[in-house]
Design a protein that fits this description.
The chain has 260 residues and is α/β, with parallel strands linked by helices. The chain has one domain: 3-Layer(aba) Sandwich (Rossmann fold). The protein is 36% helix and 27% strand. The protein has helices spanning 52-60, 83-88, 96-99, 106-116, 125-135, 152-164, 182-199, 210-216, 234-239, 244-251, and strands spanning 2-15, 24-37, 41-45, 67-72, 75-76, 89-92, 170-174, 202-207, 219-224, 227-233. The strands form 2 sheets. It has a 6-stranded mixed β-sheet with strand order 6-7-8-3-9-10, with helices on both faces. A 4-stranded antiparallel β-sheet has the order 2-1-4-5, with helices on one face. α6 (152-164) packs parallel to α7 (182-199). The longest helix is centred in the last third of the chain and has 18 residues, at 182-199. The two termini are 32 Å apart.
Length: 260
Protein backbone atom coordinates (compact mmCIF):
# COMPACT_ATOMS: atom_id res chain seq x y z
CA UNK A 1 0.00 0.00 0.00
CA UNK A 2 1.13 3.54 -0.73
CA UNK A 3 1.00 5.92 2.22
CA UNK A 4 1.08 8.98 -0.04
CA UNK A 5 0.63 9.23 -3.78
CA UNK A 6 0.96 12.43 -5.79
CA UNK A 7 -0.43 12.41 -9.32
CA UNK A 8 0.45 15.14 -11.81
CA UNK A 9 0.51 17.75 -9.04
CA UNK A 10 0.82 21.40 -10.05
CA UNK A 11 1.26 24.21 -7.51
CA UNK A 12 1.41 27.86 -8.53
CA UNK A 13 2.10 30.96 -6.48
CA UNK A 14 1.36 34.59 -7.46
CA UNK A 15 4.42 36.79 -7.89
CA UNK A 16 3.71 40.49 -7.49
CA UNK A 17 5.53 42.98 -9.69
CA UNK A 18 5.24 46.74 -9.92
CA UNK A 19 2.25 48.44 -8.22
CA UNK A 20 -0.83 48.32 -10.40
CA UNK A 21 0.34 45.35 -12.46
CA UNK A 22 -1.34 41.97 -12.44
CA UNK A 23 0.48 39.28 -10.41
CA UNK A 24 2.18 36.60 -12.46
CA UNK A 25 1.91 32.93 -11.55
CA UNK A 26 5.12 31.08 -10.77
CA UNK A 27 4.92 27.31 -11.04
CA UNK A 28 6.53 25.79 -7.94
CA UNK A 29 5.58 22.19 -8.82
CA UNK A 30 5.21 21.29 -12.47
CA UNK A 31 3.16 18.10 -12.71
CA UNK A 32 5.05 15.89 -10.25
CA UNK A 33 4.08 12.29 -9.58
CA UNK A 34 5.53 10.03 -6.88
CA UNK A 35 4.57 7.31 -4.42
CA UNK A 36 5.71 6.93 -0.82
CA UNK A 37 5.20 3.36 0.34
CA UNK A 38 3.74 2.62 3.75
CA UNK A 39 6.46 2.06 6.35
CA UNK A 40 9.41 3.20 4.26
CA UNK A 41 11.84 6.06 4.71
CA UNK A 42 11.63 8.18 1.58
CA UNK A 43 14.05 10.99 0.75
CA UNK A 44 13.43 14.14 -1.26
CA UNK A 45 16.63 15.78 -2.44
CA UNK A 46 17.60 18.68 -4.65
CA UNK A 47 18.96 22.20 -4.64
CA UNK A 48 17.32 25.03 -2.72
CA UNK A 49 14.20 26.24 -4.52
CA UNK A 50 13.61 23.00 -6.41
CA UNK A 51 10.20 22.35 -4.81
CA UNK A 52 11.01 20.02 -1.91
CA UNK A 53 9.27 22.07 0.78
CA UNK A 54 6.30 22.78 -1.50
CA UNK A 55 5.94 19.02 -1.95
CA UNK A 56 5.89 18.64 1.84
CA UNK A 57 3.22 21.34 2.07
CA UNK A 58 1.11 19.47 -0.49
CA UNK A 59 1.29 16.36 1.69
CA UNK A 60 0.13 18.36 4.69
CA UNK A 61 -2.63 20.15 2.78
CA UNK A 62 -0.92 23.54 3.16
CA UNK A 63 -0.42 24.21 -0.55
CA UNK A 64 -3.51 24.42 -2.81
CA UNK A 65 -3.30 22.38 -5.99
CA UNK A 66 -3.73 24.06 -9.36
CA UNK A 67 -3.97 20.57 -10.89
CA UNK A 68 -3.50 16.92 -9.97
CA UNK A 69 -4.36 15.08 -6.78
CA UNK A 70 -2.93 13.56 -3.62
CA UNK A 71 -3.99 10.19 -2.22
CA UNK A 72 -3.57 9.08 1.39
CA UNK A 73 -3.69 5.30 1.89
CA UNK A 74 -4.86 5.08 -1.76
CA UNK A 75 -7.89 7.34 -1.08
CA UNK A 76 -8.06 10.85 -2.63
CA UNK A 77 -7.42 13.55 -0.03
CA UNK A 78 -9.94 16.42 -0.09
CA UNK A 79 -8.70 19.99 -0.50
CA UNK A 80 -10.08 20.79 2.96
CA UNK A 81 -8.48 18.18 5.18
CA UNK A 82 -10.61 16.64 7.94
CA UNK A 83 -9.05 16.57 11.43
CA UNK A 84 -8.28 12.84 11.26
CA UNK A 85 -6.25 13.25 8.08
CA UNK A 86 -4.42 16.30 9.44
CA UNK A 87 -3.52 14.27 12.51
CA UNK A 88 -2.12 11.37 10.52
CA UNK A 89 0.41 13.47 8.56
CA UNK A 90 2.67 15.56 10.79
CA UNK A 91 5.63 17.83 10.09
CA UNK A 92 8.94 18.35 11.86
CA UNK A 93 10.25 21.73 10.75
CA UNK A 94 13.82 22.86 10.11
CA UNK A 95 14.32 25.27 13.00
CA UNK A 96 12.87 24.22 16.38
CA UNK A 97 13.71 27.65 17.81
CA UNK A 98 11.08 29.22 15.54
CA UNK A 99 8.60 26.34 15.36
CA UNK A 100 8.12 26.06 19.15
CA UNK A 101 6.24 28.71 21.13
CA UNK A 102 8.92 30.34 23.34
CA UNK A 103 6.35 31.33 25.99
CA UNK A 104 4.87 27.89 26.56
CA UNK A 105 6.38 25.07 28.54
CA UNK A 106 6.79 21.71 26.85
CA UNK A 107 4.07 20.11 28.99
CA UNK A 108 1.54 22.74 27.91
CA UNK A 109 2.34 22.38 24.19
CA UNK A 110 2.05 18.61 24.19
CA UNK A 111 -0.97 18.26 26.45
CA UNK A 112 -2.95 20.78 24.40
CA UNK A 113 -2.54 18.66 21.27
CA UNK A 114 -3.39 15.43 23.05
CA UNK A 115 -6.49 16.97 24.63
CA UNK A 116 -7.66 18.54 21.36
CA UNK A 117 -7.56 15.17 19.59
CA UNK A 118 -8.96 13.31 22.62
CA UNK A 119 -6.06 10.89 22.73
CA UNK A 120 -5.74 10.72 26.53
CA UNK A 121 -7.86 11.49 29.57
CA UNK A 122 -6.78 13.91 32.28
CA UNK A 123 -5.93 10.94 34.51
CA UNK A 124 -3.68 9.35 31.88
CA UNK A 125 -2.10 12.56 30.58
CA UNK A 126 1.02 12.45 32.78
CA UNK A 127 1.76 8.89 31.73
CA UNK A 128 1.36 9.81 28.05
CA UNK A 129 3.67 12.81 28.41
CA UNK A 130 6.34 10.71 30.10
CA UNK A 131 5.98 8.13 27.33
CA UNK A 132 6.59 10.81 24.70
CA UNK A 133 9.71 12.00 26.52
CA UNK A 134 11.00 8.44 26.63
CA UNK A 135 10.30 8.00 22.90
CA UNK A 136 12.53 10.93 22.00
CA UNK A 137 15.20 10.26 24.62
CA UNK A 138 14.55 13.20 26.93
CA UNK A 139 14.19 13.24 30.73
CA UNK A 140 10.80 14.02 32.26
CA UNK A 141 12.23 17.29 33.62
CA UNK A 142 12.10 18.74 30.09
CA UNK A 143 8.31 18.85 30.39
CA UNK A 144 8.66 21.80 32.76
CA UNK A 145 11.12 23.68 30.55
CA UNK A 146 10.65 26.59 28.16
CA UNK A 147 12.17 26.03 24.69
CA UNK A 148 14.75 28.76 25.29
CA UNK A 149 16.20 26.77 28.18
CA UNK A 150 16.94 23.76 25.97
CA UNK A 151 19.76 23.00 23.56
CA UNK A 152 19.12 22.88 19.81
CA UNK A 153 19.10 19.09 19.82
CA UNK A 154 16.71 18.97 22.77
CA UNK A 155 14.37 21.45 21.08
CA UNK A 156 14.27 19.34 17.94
CA UNK A 157 13.47 16.27 20.03
CA UNK A 158 10.61 18.22 21.61
CA UNK A 159 9.42 19.13 18.11
CA UNK A 160 9.47 15.45 17.19
CA UNK A 161 7.56 14.60 20.39
CA UNK A 162 4.98 17.24 19.45
CA UNK A 163 4.48 15.56 16.07
CA UNK A 164 4.25 12.11 17.70
CA UNK A 165 1.77 13.34 20.32
CA UNK A 166 -1.14 12.99 17.88
CA UNK A 167 -0.12 9.46 16.84
CA UNK A 168 0.58 10.09 13.13
CA UNK A 169 1.09 7.52 10.43
CA UNK A 170 3.41 9.73 8.39
CA UNK A 171 6.19 11.99 9.66
CA UNK A 172 7.47 14.62 7.24
CA UNK A 173 10.87 15.99 8.29
CA UNK A 174 11.74 19.12 6.31
CA UNK A 175 15.48 19.84 6.71
CA UNK A 176 14.98 18.66 10.28
CA UNK A 177 18.68 18.43 11.15
CA UNK A 178 20.21 21.23 9.10
CA UNK A 179 19.99 23.77 11.96
CA UNK A 180 21.84 21.45 14.39
CA UNK A 181 25.53 20.86 15.02
CA UNK A 182 27.08 17.66 13.69
CA UNK A 183 26.79 15.73 16.97
CA UNK A 184 23.13 16.65 17.45
CA UNK A 185 22.42 15.87 13.79
CA UNK A 186 23.67 12.30 14.16
CA UNK A 187 21.59 11.73 17.29
CA UNK A 188 18.39 13.07 15.71
CA UNK A 189 18.94 11.02 12.54
CA UNK A 190 19.36 7.88 14.63
CA UNK A 191 16.25 8.81 16.62
CA UNK A 192 14.17 9.18 13.45
CA UNK A 193 15.38 5.79 12.19
CA UNK A 194 14.52 4.14 15.52
CA UNK A 195 11.08 5.76 15.66
CA UNK A 196 10.26 4.56 12.18
CA UNK A 197 11.14 0.99 13.14
CA UNK A 198 9.55 1.06 16.61
CA UNK A 199 6.30 2.82 15.68
CA UNK A 200 5.88 1.60 12.10
CA UNK A 201 5.95 5.18 10.81
CA UNK A 202 6.31 6.24 7.24
CA UNK A 203 9.08 8.85 7.09
CA UNK A 204 9.45 11.49 4.38
CA UNK A 205 12.87 13.07 4.85
CA UNK A 206 13.58 16.27 2.93
CA UNK A 207 17.17 17.42 2.74
CA UNK A 208 19.87 18.97 0.59
CA UNK A 209 22.39 16.80 2.47
CA UNK A 210 22.74 13.75 0.25
CA UNK A 211 24.96 11.87 2.69
CA UNK A 212 22.23 11.98 5.33
CA UNK A 213 19.62 10.79 2.84
CA UNK A 214 21.88 7.91 1.82
CA UNK A 215 22.25 6.83 5.45
CA UNK A 216 18.59 7.13 6.41
CA UNK A 217 16.35 6.49 3.42
CA UNK A 218 15.22 3.35 1.58
CA UNK A 219 14.33 5.24 -1.60
CA UNK A 220 14.76 8.81 -2.77
CA UNK A 221 13.45 11.21 -5.37
CA UNK A 222 15.63 13.86 -6.98
CA UNK A 223 13.90 17.17 -7.75
CA UNK A 224 14.92 19.99 -10.06
CA UNK A 225 12.98 23.13 -11.02
CA UNK A 226 9.67 21.84 -9.70
CA UNK A 227 9.91 18.42 -11.30
CA UNK A 228 10.88 14.92 -10.17
CA UNK A 229 13.76 13.86 -12.40
CA UNK A 230 14.60 10.47 -10.88
CA UNK A 231 13.25 8.04 -8.25
CA UNK A 232 15.20 4.95 -7.18
CA UNK A 233 16.34 2.81 -4.28
CA UNK A 234 18.83 4.96 -2.42
CA UNK A 235 21.91 2.84 -3.03
CA UNK A 236 21.08 2.52 -6.73
CA UNK A 237 20.60 6.27 -6.92
CA UNK A 238 24.03 6.89 -5.44
CA UNK A 239 25.97 4.15 -7.20
CA UNK A 240 24.26 4.11 -10.61
CA UNK A 241 22.31 7.35 -11.21
CA UNK A 242 20.42 7.34 -14.50
CA UNK A 243 19.73 11.02 -15.09
CA UNK A 244 22.34 13.67 -15.97
CA UNK A 245 21.05 16.06 -13.30
CA UNK A 246 21.41 13.38 -10.61
CA UNK A 247 24.97 12.72 -11.70
CA UNK A 248 25.74 16.46 -11.56
CA UNK A 249 24.22 16.72 -8.10
CA UNK A 250 26.29 13.82 -6.80
CA UNK A 251 29.46 15.08 -8.47
CA UNK A 252 29.09 18.35 -6.55
CA UNK A 253 29.59 16.55 -3.21
CA UNK A 254 33.19 17.13 -2.04
CA UNK A 255 35.10 13.86 -1.98
CA UNK A 256 32.06 11.84 -3.10
CA UNK A 257 32.85 8.21 -3.88
CA UNK A 258 29.91 6.40 -5.57
CA UNK A 259 31.27 3.07 -4.31
CA UNK A 260 31.42 4.24 -0.67
Amino acid sequence: MSAVTLRDVVVEYPVHGAPGTKPQLRRALDGISLQVRSGESFGLVGESGCGKSTTANVMLGLAPLAAGEMLFDDVPAPARRPPALRRHIQMVFQDPASSLNPRRRVRSMLSELITHHRLATSSSMDARLRELMEMVGLPDSVLSALPGNLSGGQRQRVAIARALAVEPKILVADEAVSALDVSAQAKVINLLADLRDDLGLTLVFISHDLAVVRALCDRAAVMNAGQVVEVADTEALFTDPQEPYTRQLLAAIPGFDPAG
